[in-house]
Design a protein that fits this description.
With 240 residues, the chain is α/β, with parallel strands linked by helices. Helix content is 46%, strand content 15%. Helix 3 runs parallel beside helix 4, helix 6 packs parallel to helix 7 and helix 8 runs parallel beside helix 10. The chain is globular and about 45 Å long. Bound molecules: orotidine-5'-monophosphate. The site of orotidine-5'-monophosphate has 19 residues, from strand 8 and helix 9. Pfam families: OMPdecase. Its EC number is 4.1.1.23. It catalyses: orotidine 5'-phosphate + H(+) = UMP + CO2. Keywords: Decarboxylase, Lyase, Pyrimidine biosynthesis.
Length: 240
């Protein structure tokens, strides 16, 4: 399985996202994440425009609603030809299974492979105190994340989104074939911003992460292409 460095295209307009991508040589095929900000602004058209350039798309809309609504929405997402998409594990078993059904059905309608369904565990902006006080979940962040990984696997998801800090425990619990994609990635010198559970690309690779999601350290760098290449080089070297 390939281990991508996924660039989070957290931009407010399609134009800004495309100008950002124009900095890369046309032969460079990326995996990019379209999240709520860009999708709400630019819709399925931006997904298609980016796919038409040959990039793989991770459509990160973090669905969390009643099972019927999630199934119907996932059916639409399944038709878009994206490689990964997300749902909140906190929605529970029935909702997660409905998400998978919708995704598989939508992809089949277009004769496409189903996108990988990744369940959000605990956001990387959540720390121990927030878990125990805001969410009123007792115990450790790691225990909650591993629980959600087990729930996601039992509900037919393909993997989870988590901090690289929990990847070892997740793979020990559910096996190394279960995908663990990790945001909250910061090169050693970068600011953490609003992220609470961060790791460097090297540490994430050593922990067994199946792919990185990186936004601001690339999109807000003075030289975005160089920032991406430095992270890719560090990640690839540590994965060897
Ligand atoms: O689902 C995600 O991608 C996600 C989950 C999570 O727990 N933490 C997290 O940061 N993300 C996303 O990963 C990206 C991280 O961006 P940066 O903090 O700028 O690198 C953003 O697009 C977030 O929406």
């Amino acid at each position: 399985m390939s281990r991508p460095v996924i660039i989070a295209l957290d931009f407010p307009t399609a134009a800004q996202a495309l100008v950002f991508l124009d900095q890369f040589p046309a032969t460079t095929k990326l995996t990019v994440k379209i999240g709520m900000e860009l999708f709400y602004a630019a819709g399925p058209q931006i997904v298609q425009a980016i796919e038409a350039r040959g990039h793989a798309v991770f459509l990160d809309l973090k669905l969390h609603d009643i099972p019927n609504t999630v199934e119907s929405a996932m059916r639409v997402i399944g038709r878009l030809g994206v490689r990964y998409t997300t749902v909140h594990a906190a929605g529970g078993h029935v909702m997660l299974a409905a998400a998978k059904r919708g995704l598989v059905a939508g992809a089949a309608e277009q004769g496409l492979p189903a996108p990988k369904l990744l369940a959000i565990t605990q956001l990387t902006s959540t720390n121990q105190a927030m878990l125990n006080t805001d969410q009123q979940i007792p115990g450790t962040v790691q225990a909650s994340v591993v629980h959600y990984a087990e729930l996601a696997q039992a509900s037919d998801c393909d993997g989870v989104i988590c901090s690289a800090q929990e990847v070892g425990a997740i793979h020990a619990a559910v096996g190394t074939d279960f995908i663990a994609i990790t945001p909250g990635i910061r090169p050693a010198t970068a600011a953490a911003d609003d992220q609470q559970r961060v790791m460097t690309p090297t540490a994430a690779a050593k922990a067994g992460s199946n792919g990185l999601v990186v936004g601001r350290p690339i999109t807000q760098a003075e030289n975005a292409v160089r920032a991406y290449q430095q992270i890719l080089t560090e990640w690839s070297a540590a994965n060897d």
